[in-house]
Design goal:
The complex is a heterodimer of chains A (119) and B (110). With 119 residues, chain A is mainly β. Chain A is built from no helices and eleven strands. The radius of gyration of chain A is 14 Å and the shape is globular. Classes of the chains: A mainly beta (119), B mainly beta (110).
Chain lengths: 119, 110
């Protein structure tokens, strides 16, 4: 089945540093990927939609200068948390959709998430 | 995007059948119903998807009444490893972004 891989799975860094998270679609090309954030005991919150070859679309309240998204190829999207602070500590999850092939019912496939801890 | 309502939590015992119902009163004609399972510190995993009537795969069944305003995920003979959060999503999977509701926290006891 479709596989989405995230790297790293866990990162701890000091406040003020920038952290890059990679999301790869391993066996299919994804023109669109999504980035979510999840706090403990809460649901996933959509942060942005990453579009290959164009700018990402951010959800209301998500700082685009804080969370930089790059989708330079059909198999890779990256999320960079710039100048991270403790409040940015969270579980970040990406997803990708299989090419629709004219069908509307292709579900999203999710990576296993990246746990980010800012000290 | 149609809003969904699910029970916050459910308890069950091993070997029982578990039915989780999701309400989606404003579902649109082109919307599909998709269920995901999420374990702690993992991304959601696709379980099943349907448009109408009944869909069954190797892990679950999905029942959708004719008016499509609700759906029920059925997990046969649950085990401890089925303890997870289950999300019901409604939308056009191939066309629009996915918004997660609160999900149902299922706890399976021995």
């Amino acid at each position: 089945g479709a596989v989405v891989s995230q790297h790293p799975s866990w990162v701890i860094c000091k406040s003020g540093t920038s952290v890059k998270i990679e999301c790869r679609s391993l066996d299919f090309q994804a023109t669109t990927m999504f980035w979510y954030r999840q706090f403990p005991k809460q649901s996933l919150m959509l942060m942005a939609t990453s579009n290959e070859g164009s700018k990402a679309t951010y959800e209301q309240g998500v700082e685009k200068d804080k969370f930089l998204i790059n989708h330079a190829s059909l198999t890779l999207s990256t999320l960079t948390v710039t100048s991270a602070h403790p409040e940015d500590s969270s579980f970040y999850i990406c997803s990708a959709r299989l090419p629709t092939g004219g069908l509307d019912n292709q579900p999203q496939h999710f990576g296993d998430g990246t746990r980010l801890s800012i000290l | 995007l149609a809003k969904t309502t699910q029970p916050i939590s459910m308890d069950s015992y091993e070997g029982q059948e578990v039915n989780i119902t999701c309400s989606h009163n404003n579902i649109a004609t082109n919307d599909y119903i998709t269920w995901y399972q999420q374990f702690p510190s993992q991304g959601p995993r696709f379980i099943i998807q349907g448009y109408k009537t009944k869909v069954t795969n190797e892990v679950a069944s999905l029942f959708i009444p004719a008016d499509r305003k609700s759906s029920t995920l059925s997990l046969p003979r649950v085990s401890l490893s089925d303890t997870a959060v289950y999300y019901c999503l409604v939308g056009v999977p191939g066309g629009f972004k996915t918004i997660f509701g609160a999900g149902t926290r299922l706890f399976v006891k021995a």
